[in-house]
Structures are given as structure tokens and as C-alpha cells.
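It is worth pausing here to work through a concrete case rather than discussing structure prediction in the abstract. The textbook approach is simple: state the sequence, then state the predicted structure, then interpret. We follow exactly that order.
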Amino acid sequence: MAKRKTLFELIYNDLKKQVLSMSNGDQLKSIEQLCEEHNVSRTVIREVITALERDGLLVRRQGLGTFVVKDNELVHTGIEYLRGLTRIITSSGKKPGLSYDSAKIIKADAQISSKLEMENDEELVVSERIYEADNVPAIFARTYIATNRLSGGSSAFLNFMEKGESKKMTLFDILESNFKDPIRYAVAEIESTIVDDTLARLLKVEKGKSLVVMKEVHRDINNIPLLYSIDYINTSVFRIQVLRKKI
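Step two, the predicted structure:
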């Protein structure tokens, strides 16, 4: 006797067919419309949308809606909301991983102290990680953490980073669960850079190629800067999308 499909499976299969018939960039109907169309609760629709996003067929834009993604060879994300790189890779239907993970104490130079609003030569921690998508280097992330503003300071932060569980967590999660109030927002700058010997080795890309660089200052709920991140993005793997609306 065939196993009876659950309500989630039925709605998932139905909505997946609908998404596959749509074009790249098309906007999905609202949750309310989908609830009415399928005669199910918001909870079921949300679970189905999350599953389709994890499968790399949809991407959500906070405050704007949910959109169809067709090119699933890439990791897709918008820059209008913060999720953490591991979640972004997972939501594109790819397996996240870290091929490099390092953290050490340094002194803030003029640029870093300006970004994090601290004194020159003040102690902080710099984290360097290479995030992979299906074992392919996608992003080299260098993040400066104002550890003097965390409970226990630099030593406590480094001690946690040495634990195995930290490898499965985003820096957002590490801060929120162990040290500080959650990050509330970030101000981002997008630039380009030419691949040098170091980036070619880390991201396994051709020297001289152009890469996207995203620089962000992340602030907590009290508007205090906690992180300054510089992400070097391999755009052959990781695609950033921006939805712009006329006002």
C-alpha cells in the first residue's frame, strides 16, 4: 500500500511545479494569496517556501517578496537583509563548508579604529574564513570584531572560536548566543578589486580577474559597531542581486 503524502508534501509538489513554470526573477504570490489558493494555513505555506528556498528555487527579499531563481549553479542572495553566509549558501540548495578558519588578536590601525569607532592600537580580534558552496570557494571573509565590547573580551571570544561547534555557526550566531545582543543592521559598501596572488590562492580563481568586495559595518541594537567585515566574493559561484523599486 502506497504511503499517503502529507499536506506539506502535497503543497510542496504543487507549488514547485508552479515555480518551475515561472521565469527567473518572477515574484511569487503573497503568503495570503497562496493560503487562499491552497486552502492551508500560513504555517504550511511558510514551511514550503523555506524548503523551496533551500532547494535553490526561490529567494526572499525582506519587505519586498519572494522571487524565482532559475540559475541554480550559483549561490543567490540579496543584500537588503542579514542572514549570515552559511544560511545564504544553504538556502541556495548547496552544502556550506569552511576550508579555512582563523582568528587572532591584533591592534586596530587608523582605518579599522575609524570603522569601529575605537581608539588607535586598541585590541580586537580578526577572523578570516573561506566559505565554500559544494566544496567550491565562494567567499573569503575577513571580519574585525570589537572584542573589547564583549563579555570576557578577546580571550573569551578566541576560546570559543577554538571549539568545534563554532565551525558550524555564523559570527552573528556566535555573538548572539554567547556574548552580546544581536546585530541589528549593517551599512554596506560595494567595490571591486583585482585578484592578487593571495586571493588567487585562497579562492582558486585566476590572478588578474575582477572580484566584488563588500565592506560592512555591523551595529547592535544600541547602535554600537561590533563588526567590520570585508568579503571578497567569487562571482562565478556567488551572485548578489538587488531589487530596486521606483518611488
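Step three, interpretation. The beta strands are 58-61, 65-68, 75-78, 96-107, 123-133, 136-145, 183-194, 210-220, 225-233, 238-241. The mean pLDDT is 85.
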